[in-house]
Amino acid sequence: MFRRAMTLIVSAVLLVGFTVAALAVPVPYVVASPGLALDTLGELDGEQVIQVEGHPSYEHDGSLSMVTVQYAGGPGSRMNLFTALSAWLSPSQAVLPEEAIFPPDRSAEEVSQTQAVQMDNSQDAAVAAALNEMDVPYETAAVVHTVNEDYPAEGVLRSGDVLVEIDGEPVADKEEAVAAVQDRSPGDPVRILVERDGQKQEVEVGTVESDTGDPIIGITVENDMTFPFDVEISVGGVGGPSAGMMFALGVMDRLDPEGLTGGHHIAGTGTIDVDGNVGGVSGVQQKMVSAKREGAEYFLVAAESCDQTFESAVTGQIEVVRVETLEEAADALEDIREGDTDALPRC
């Protein structure tokens, strides 16, 4: 009997030990949790998040908060199985495969750098979209971003070249530049007037056929926008493009003497492009939790992300408004200001 009892005790201890050891094993998952909620109309570290110089700007009651997701785990800091299981049982957290956030062919540092670039680009696009919505003109130029190796443009064009004319016709932005190059047959040359280091010169570049059959010269082009006044957006170390819509609304509020919120507390998430199109994002459930914690009454979300709101832990406690464009978002805020919320588009 004693030997049998000892065997059972040892077996139980070993089982507990193995279980504890298994729970402590690092696993390739990432936990997404509610993150920062930052009022774009407010301050961060004593300075306004959105600062306008060279144009009248205004401060109003209410808030337009961007919301974020914070991630735990990933390469170099993997969590254990116990932590992952606990997060899986949490109504406000999500457990994702590591490669969903950190692609296997990229380091954590590279992912962080990409997110920083995306944040910068989203801020520029937000300012442009806000000015477009408010009919404030600004200048654009088509600028060479990268020159690809083993393509006709290599050695002829350089990063930073401004594309002034193509085949004698002026180009104002990257869309016009791309259309001008594709208005020919593959193999035909392109005459391009570029501005480089303040000097203009004409170059000729050959074309080759792309995978889609279009003529290309082997460059990527970006729009360089020159605004009539300075708009600076400061959000600390936050990265990614998902705050674009809220940045655009924040800029509009700063420039509007009457403001957009009517004193209401609004949060939201969605990307933005210069034309004011609002794009979908991930982590909407976690962002809604952050918004609710900050006292938001309404949550603006891209139509593409509506399906993420249905299982949110706070659905029903905060009004979810579906938007596809910056104009729709501004219209929704007008309805909220006027108390006419019955017709608000909802997910």
TrEMBL record:
Protein name: PDZ domain-containing protein
Molecular function GO terms recorded: ATP-dependent peptidase activity; serine-type endopeptidase activity
Cross-referenced InterPro entries: Lon_proteolytic, PDZ, PDZ_sf, Ribosomal_Su5_D2-typ_SF, Ribsml_uS5_D2-typ_fold_subgr
GO terms under biological process: proteolysis
Species this protein is from: Thermobifida halotolerans
Top-level taxonomic group: Bacteria
Pfam family, one: Lon_C
